[in-house]
Amino acid sequence: MSKYDIGIVIVNYNVRHFLTQCLQSIRNSELRDLKLEIWVVDNASLDGSVGLIKNDFPEVHLIANENNLGFSVANNQAIRQMDAKYILLLNPDTVLEEDTLHSCYDFMEDHLNAGALGVKMIDGAGKFLPESKRQIPDIWNSFCKLSYLSELFPHSRWFSGYNLGYLPENETNEIQVLCGAFMFMRSEALLKTGLLDENFFMYGEDIDLSYRIIRAGYKIYYFPETSIIHYKGESTKKSSLNYVKTFYGAMHIYVNKHYGQGNAKNFARFIRFAIYMRAVLSSMSRMLRNWGIPVLDFIFIWILMSNIKNVWAEIYFQDSTYYSQTNIDTVLGAYTLVWVFFLWLSGHYDPKSSEFRTMSGIGLGTLFILIAYALLPEALRTSRALILIGSLVSIFIVMVSRYLFRFIRGSSGYESGGINIAIVAEKINAQKLVHIINSANLKIENIHFISPLPARNDPFFSNDVKSLPKVVKTLKIHEIIYSSEDMSMKDIIHSMTSMESEVAFRIGGDDSLRIIGSKNKNQQGELYSLDVLYKLSNPQNKRYKRLTDIVLSILFVVLIPLLLIINGFKLRLVKNILSVLTGNNTWLGYGGNHSDYSFLPELPAGIIKFPMTTKAISYTEDHFKKMNIMYAKEYNVLQEIFIIGNNLHKLSNRV
Q1: Domain 4-133+169-231 has what CATH class?
Q2: What span, in angstroms and rounded, lies between the C-alpha atoms of 467 and 174?
């Protein structure tokens, strides 16, 4: 007989704030007489997750890996040490309803033929996640999935077989594949099938294990009587090329394992081809999202400037063909590239941009061009008037493109400011949430306070939670923030799924002083926090630091004979320059032990260690930690260059 009724395994990697909310939802579960054991396997996180678990969740069994061993290996590490009747594999970016664990336990007890079950999952925007119920891939449903036919016909029995879109999302049904975010399994089934296949680093292992559970004679059920939130994207970083490579590589392993023999070889070849094609399309799509707008801005500014130069030639020189025998189009292209670069550097292309960033980007770009113009040979000079006209053209183009793309994406005003927020909480907790929101430096137009209880006759509240859908629609609410201290998670999830209007959801209210949420399933989760704001967390300062590394590396290449003398002819200097250029290292980084900076914004390993650049006869115990905090909190480009300049003899340091 097992010691525990349910054993929960959570594999964590750099999502400490989401892990906190996940563990808190487990604490709030209505267990009645059920006994739990909870294991967190941390895959070498750098965000202080290990310390947080030790301090705030002493009931959790912790395995702290020194390297990222992957999802399958990490889960197996915990499962081998557990003694529970049922095993739940749970993602750290999930939140359970209060009755989730008990409801799943009761269902499995009533269905002895069940080897595993999954529940209804919604994303951070309150939308149903179709991967809550899936079918084992075959050649047709894989084709529909990989060719996007299943997305075009999401409820068709013929086209949506991969995600079983034709099965009602609120009806219990037998399915074939669980989602790795929530896999509630009978331990005896795992004994028969074996644990997760460790050839899968991440992704694909859920399909593989589900397939083996069914082959062992068990059934798998989709059980929507309870729901969870899966922020989806925060722990996987799906916008990265690394995700594409890892996911489709995992599918390749699965196909080779289960379809690589006999008549199934053709299926394996087709899937491999489809995987490669989908990977290419996904990569191109991500590149387009990241660089599409800057590239289009460049093209439109350049085209418009190329036409304006002829108008200017007619006005100023009375000859529209004045520039026809010159290389002015190349020069104008260089100007345009400078403007777009400084727009990127100023943060114009960040999600939460502003008119000030746009104007400062164009202004700095124009200043750079004017300085460079004075140094150019006469043959490459155009006209200062054309530069000034070009700056005005650039402002016009980028402002139009920004609002146009915002309109196409259906933006609700997040970037331009003036958002409307509804806070569903009791008065004391509402005031605490307002304090956290204010620390996030948001541009807020209105905050409406909604009572978590119906028919509340208190002038502090605009309305009550039952009227929230109407409030959202009428008052054009952009974000709803729920207090988990004043509403059950079940009621919060029910409220989220009842909204007809597009709105972002966040959940806060516990002692962590953080508000967590997500706008949609394709975006990473977002955080408002009272934590110390580090300048190195700012995307703009990250760009400045990376640009500083690149510029200094190029300068060091030019000065390499001198630097070799300064560094005692150590050839490691050349290796370090290449490593910084490729982004594997940075010239100036954290120093001390890993624990002295693991909680700070992540940086590549530094060639020069910041706390080691100052001389001291003796160090206090927390010297390195304090110095690293100061560096991250007060980051400054000029200070960075000054420190590196004073430590040129350390450029050949061993990392």
Answers
A1: alpha beta
A2: 36
